[in-house]
Amino acid sequence: MTTGTQPDSTTGTRAPRKVAPEIARSWLLVNASRTELYAPAAASRADQVVLDIEDAVDPSTKPEAREEVASWLEHGDHDTWVRINDRSTSFWSDDVDRLAGLPGLAGVMLAKTEAAQDVTETFDRLGGHTPVLALVESALGIEEAVSIARARGAFRLAFGSGDYRRDTGTSADDLAMAYPRSRLVVASRIGGLPGPIDGPTVSSNHPVLREQAAVTVSLGLTGKLVLDVDQLPVINEVISPTPSDVAWARDFLDEFEARGRVIRDGSDLPRLGRAQKIDTLARAFGVNPS
Q1: Is 163 annotated as a binding residue?
Q2: Domains of the chain, first to last
Q3: pLDDT in tens, 224-274
Q4: How far is Cα 201 from Cα 192, in angstroms, rounded to an integer?
Q5: Known binder of ligand: residue 95?
Q6: Is 83 annotated as a binding residue?
Q7: pTM, rounded to two decimals
């Protein structure tokens, strides 16, 4: 697998090309209080970077972390996401007011989203053009997932799996967690959103990461929150089309063109749609056929 590069205006090095957020696989969460991590995160293999001023930051230091994030966004071409505090907290208003209109803000990840109104109020306070990635982290959020996905300003859904387990008492077992993940997949489809983003895996053990990312893909989620840069290569690889899938897709598309784009039977249209999707993602991710 190959990845394109682009110059990094902060470090002078060449950083991996960031994949469009609609199809981004890896969403790297960075503690906003750890300013020394900002530039390495921007230069990492993460498709998207999220500076976290919510759970990662102690309440007493949130104002300082917010200002550090604002300074980063104001001074440089960073195109970064920010995880803001949830609508029910006293920090939310200060977050949206400080971030609104900043040139480097790609979008916000709204913590603990539980209603469509949480999304629309955030979207409106940010000026009506900044995308809101709704982080669903509770039983109520899962129950309201369809209305959240349909909310004005909603961009994608993400699964806050740790808080969901704390809220419901659910174990981390794949079977137990299949229901909320599937709810987010179905809600995203109904709401016309890209595929949802799965919660993080704590371990950086490669076999564990591969197994968990494969579960993500099997359930229809198309991205994953990431806690450590060491996790990025594995997660990006597993969520990408395989080289053999790319080879099949391009062979099918070539053959389809060669026969004049004629549909032969009922299986052709589904296969055509799958081949086109694989080809599009492979080009975006730099995956070459085997």
Answers
A1: yes
A2: 5-239 (3.20.20.60), 243-285 (no CATH)
A3: 999 999 999 999 999 999 999 999 999 999 999 998 988 888 888 999 999
A4: 27
A5: no
A6: yes
A7: 0.91
